[in-house]
C-alpha cells in the first residue's frame, strides 16, 4: 500500500478515539475508571485471541506485558486520573505532548534523526490543541498535571517500543496480545480498588461494546499496523486528531458552541499534522516494515 493509504488508515484510530469522552460521559456509569478500562481491554483482547488463535511465545511474554502496561493499563489509568482532576482541555493538551516525547524517544532508542521541523510541527500542534480546548476558567491541579504528563510519556514509550519490538506475527495478533495483557494487569487492580459495578443498562452495554470492539480492538489494530509501517513521529502526530474529533462530536451531538479561537486551534492542529507528515516522510526510507505473519497466525 502507498504511504498515503497507511496514513489514512492509521489516522482512523485517533479519529475514533475522539469519541471516547462523549461515550464515557453519556453512556457509561461514572466513578469506575479502572474497572471500565479493564472491561474495555480484556474482552476485546480475548476476542482477538480467539479469532487469531495465536498466543505469544514464552520469549515474548515479558515484552507483551511491558507493552500492554504502557499502551493500555498505565496509560488508561493515568488518563482517567488526569481527566478527573483537570479540565478536559488541559488534560488533552498535556496528552498532545506525546508527539514531542516520541520524537525524543525515537532518537534515543531507535536512532531516528531528530529533525527541527518535526519538533516544530509537534510544538505547533500542542499550541493548536490548547487553543482548541483550554478555556479561561481552566484551573491546574499538580496531581492531574503529573498524571497527564505520565500518560503522555507512557503512550509515547509504548509507541516507540512497539516499533522497536516487532514480533513475527500480524498486527491483529500483536494487538490481541497487548490488549489481553493490559486487561489482565487492570483486572486485579480494579477488583481491589473499586466497588462492584451497578447493574448495567442497555446504554451502558452499548457504550462498552463501542469502546471495546471499535475503540480498542479495531482501532488499535490500525494503530499498531501504522507504527510498523510509518516512522514513530508521523504516527504520534496523527494522535492530535483525537481532540479535534472530540470537539466536533461535542458540537454536533451535545450542542456545544465552537468559537473562532477553537476553529483557529483546529486549523493549526490539522496544519501541524500535515507538516509533520511531510517532514517525517524523509525518515521513512530504510525503516524496517512489519514482517510477514508466521504460518497459522492472522
TrEMBL record:
Keywords from the named record: Membrane, Transmembrane, Transmembrane helix
SUPFAM superfamilies, A to Z: Multidrug resistance efflux transporter EmrE
Ranges where the EamA domain occurs: 7-133, 143-275
InterPro entries according to UniProt: AA-Vitamin_Transporters, EamA_dom, EmrE-like
Subcellular location: Membrane
Coiled coil: none
Keyword Metal-binding: no
Transmembrane segment boundaries: 32-52, 64-84, 90-109, 116-136, 142-162, 174-193, 205-223, 235-254, 260-279
Gene Ontology terms: cellular component: membrane
Tagged with keyword Transmembrane helix: yes
Membrane topology: Multi-pass membrane protein
Domain of life: Bacteria
Annotated family: Belongs to the EamA transporter family.
Record protein name field: Putative DMT superfamily transporter inner membrane protein
Phylogenetic classification of the source organism: Bacteria, Pseudomonadati, Pseudomonadota, Alphaproteobacteria, Rhodobacterales
Amino acid at each position: 500500500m502507498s504511504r498515503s493509504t497507511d496514513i489514512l488508515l492509521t489516522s482512523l484510530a485517533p479519529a475514533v478515539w475522539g469519541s471516547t469522552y462523549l461515550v464515557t460521559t453519556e453512556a457509561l456509569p461514572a466513578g469506575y475508571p479502572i474497572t471500565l478500562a479493564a472491561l474495555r481491554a480484556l474482552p476485546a483482547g480475548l476476542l482477538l485471541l480467539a479469532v487469531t488463535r495465536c498466543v505469544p511465545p514464552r520469549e515474548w511474554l515479558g515484552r507483551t506485558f511491558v507493552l500492554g502496561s504502557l499502551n493500555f493499563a498505565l496509560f488508561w489509568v493515568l488518563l482517567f486520573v488526569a481527566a478527573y482532576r483537570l479540565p478536559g482541555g488541559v488534560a488533552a493538551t498535556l496528552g498532545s505532548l506525546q508527539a514531542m516525547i516520541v520524537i525524543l524517544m525515537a532518537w534515543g532508542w531507535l536512532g531516528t534523526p531528530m529533525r527541527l521541523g518535526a519538533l516544530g510541527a509537534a510544538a505547533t500542534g500542542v499550541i493548536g490543541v490548547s487553543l482548541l480546548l483550554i478555556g479561561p476558567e481552566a484551573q491546574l491541579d499538580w496531581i492531574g498535571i503529573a498524571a497527564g504528563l505520565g500518560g503522555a510519556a507512557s503512550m509515547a514509550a509504548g509507541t516507540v517500543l512497539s516499533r522497536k519490538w516487532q514480533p513475527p506475527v500480524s498486527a491483529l495478533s500483536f494487538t490481541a496480545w497487548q490488549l489481553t495483557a493490559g486487561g489482565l494487569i487492570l483486572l486485579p487492580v480494579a477488583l481491589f480498588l473499586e466497588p462492584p459495578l451497578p447493574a448495567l443498562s442497555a446504554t451502558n452495554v452499548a457504550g462498552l461494546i463501542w469502546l471495546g470492539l471499535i475503540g480498542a480492538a479495531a482501532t488499535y489494530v490500525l494503530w499498531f499496523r501504522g507504527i510498523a509501517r510509518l516512522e514513530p513521529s508521523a504516527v504520534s502526530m496523527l494522535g492530535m486528531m483525537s481532540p479535534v474529533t472530540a470537539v466536533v462530536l461535542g458540537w454536533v451531538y451535545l450542542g456545544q458552541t465552537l468559537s473562532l479561537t477553537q476553529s483557529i486551534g483546529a486549523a493549526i492542529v490539522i496544519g501541524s499534522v500535515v507538516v509533520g507528515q511531510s517532514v517525517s516522510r524523509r525518515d521513512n526510507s530504510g525503516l524496517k516494515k512489519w514482517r510477514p505473519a508466521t504460518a497459522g497466525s492472522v
